[in-house]
Amino acid sequence: MSRENDKIFDVRSLEAFQAAMSCGSMTGAARQLGIGQPTVTRLVKDLEADVGFQLFHRNGPRISPTDRGLRFYEEVHRLISGLRQIRDHADAIREDRLPAIDIAATPAMAGGLIGPALEALGADLPDYVNLQTMNAEYVVRALRNRTADLGIAAFPMEHLGLARHVICESRLVAVVASDTPLARAHHDRPLPLSVFANTRLITVGNAFRIRHAIDVALGEQGIAPARELSTNSSLNAIMVARSGLGAAIVDPVTAFGIPVDGVTILPLETPVPYFWGLLSEANRVFAPSQMRFVGAFRTACRDTIPDCTFHDPLDASLLKRIEQMLRT
């Protein structure tokens, strides 16, 4: 099936598709949009004809997305979000308000630093702030697609075509339940990696990010953890450690930025560096009020992370050194 390359999709069809994906049924989508179910069905079928592939598997009233439908949904969600952002910006211009800020951030950065950064804006906090959480690769994509004004993520990340506003460094930390022997024994001294020879290691499993740095540090000391629990979230790791099932090694933004009762944060005897930054698309033009978020973010990092160090974001060789350090 073919279509004209310059075909413009009907926004109503895209909204119907997004609603059907969100609700899991045409009937639910109709309720959400306030239109009839036959109209939703027709709009989705029209969209399938336009794109040239099936978006849903249909079994009576039940629908489930096809693989292509799932991939297409990511693009539709991005587009609809962008249209809503345009509307918000237009409202701000018409009403002479501070322009909205659209932020893309990883979950750790959003949970640990966005609240304090927005608070630090004071009177410069706009009426509308849009915060979307996603993994680092999608943060970069959102900046390049201009669906976000600013992005916050940990390094390493692909930074070609992006402007760096803030680059921070700290160290990974250990988190243990406060009522455990480990917490009592190390309340005034760093935790050696050797404890993981007999203690369950709880950490994030992405081999290309902090897990790689942890594995390198353990390998250099010949330590092979006997037991492990791997997850995709530092906060998950902290909550498991809180149950007394082992010791977590996590990023400092989550550990210090999202306080959890019943745990003790311990420095590691072997420093494992952790870098993160605030970036934007290189040619993005910001209103003065939006650029004040840069200073507010620095304030949040300084006040939240005890040993936060700031690097010169204009140092062209800095990110190469960071990547070499983290991927050695």
Automatic annotation (TrEMBL):
Keywords, sorted A to Z: DNA-binding, Transcription, Transcription regulation
Transcription as UniProt keyword: yes
Protein name: LysR family transcriptional regulator
HTH lysR-type domain location: 9-66
Regions that span the bilayer: none
A Pfam family hit: HTH_1
Entry GO MF terms: DNA-binding transcription factor activity; sequence-specific DNA binding
Family statement: Belongs to the LysR transcriptional regulatory family.
Domain of life: Bacteria
InterPro entries for the chain: LysR_HTH_N, LysR_subst-bd, WH-like_DNA-bd_sf, WH_DNA-bd_sf
Gene Ontology BP, a term: positive regulation of gene expression
Coiled-coil boundaries: none
